[in-house]
Each structure stands twice: as structure tokens, then as C-alpha cells.
Amino acid sequence: MGETLSFGKKERVSPIFTNAMMKKPPHFCEICAVLDSLYPDPPIPLQFSDAYTLLVAVVLSAQCTDKRVNEVTPRLWAHGTRPQDILALGETGISEIIRPCGLYQNKARAIYGLSEAIIQNYGGQVPSARDALEKLPGVGRKTANVILSHVFGVPAFAVDTHVHRLANRWGWSDATTPTGVEKDLCALFDDSEWTKRHLQMIYFGRNYCKAKGHDPNACPACALLV
Length: 226
What we know:
Elements: H1 28-38, H2 51-60, H3 66-77, H4 83-87, H5 90-98, H6 104-122, H7 130-134, H8 141-150, H9 161-169, H10 178-188, H11 194-207
Helix pairs in contact: 2-8, 5-6, 9-10, 9-11
């Protein structure tokens, strides 16, 4: 669930989804029904106990599976679950523990930096404001959205590779950036649905609507569009 998209293109927001009252894309309700039938109450796939442990887990999940992250984080939390505990490990200590997650040096630098910032600027507590979250090392808009929605109950629609791919395939957005896709999806759904739909699309993208070897006729959602 980490920050994995960097398209380097000018944001292009689809003009047809400017507000939730406009016409929905073809088979929109049917696809939503498929998602609801398969994942009526989808859990967040990362294991965490509070805002800080989720924040670290999301940073670790960049270009790494949630399963691997869930295998690694208990080793990290064995040293403590507070920013102070992780900071005491130093970048080198963090790196050694999180090595299986890949990109471990960059991730260790980010975890050390965000832990330090949380202690120095926010009294050891993860901030609940978007602008403050996005100023933390290694934290982009998607990660901030995950924290806001899953910890602080603030409506947010996090867009990762799966959500982006499905939104494009289903005609829910033709935006080329995660922020553009986010705007389109937020216009399609009531904000009370954003967190659930984000998780449903992640699970569906992993299990049925994969990036490679995808057969539209065999996909419960794409088959409706063929």
C-alpha cells in the first residue's frame, strides 16, 4: 500500500466526473455489487496497533507485498512501538530489520526521519492533519490518505497501483496521475464509501483484475464491460 506511482505527467482529471450527481459510467452499479458481494467488509491488509505502526507499515509496503510487511513489522515492534524506540535503532539498525521489504535503505531513512519529526514536532504523536502528514519524510498523499481514513476517520480515497488500474479499466477515470484518479473516484462515491471502496478495489485487483495475464472475460467485473 505504499507510494508506488510516479508517472511524471501533467495531471489530467476526467471532465465527465465533476460531481457525484452526474451520470455514472456503464455498469457502475453492477460492478459495485460485485465488489460488495466479494468483499462486504474488507479489512485493511496491514497489521497495526495505532497510527504510528500503520504509518511505518505503509511506508514499508512500497513495492513490497503486504504479506511480507506483516512478516517483518513484528521484528521491528519487538524493539518497541513508539517513535522513540525505533529512533534508538538508528538507520543501520532499522535497515537490517526491514531488509526483506526491499528498498530498505531508503525506507530506513524515511522511517528514521519521520520518527524524528514526530518526536520533535508533534510530541511523539502522529499528526492528524493532512498537510502535517505529507511533510513527514517518506509520506505522500496516498500514505496520508490511508492514515487519515483508517486511523482518524477522515474521509479519504487512497489510490495505489491496483485502484489506479481498475479505475482506468472500468471507465471510472481516465486520469493519468493518482491525484487525478482520486478526484474522479471521490466524485463517483459518497465520502462515507471511500474507505471501503478503496479496500475493495485493492483486494479485487490482486485476486481478479491483475496487471499481467488479465482475461477480461474471466474477470467478474470486466466481463460486464466486454
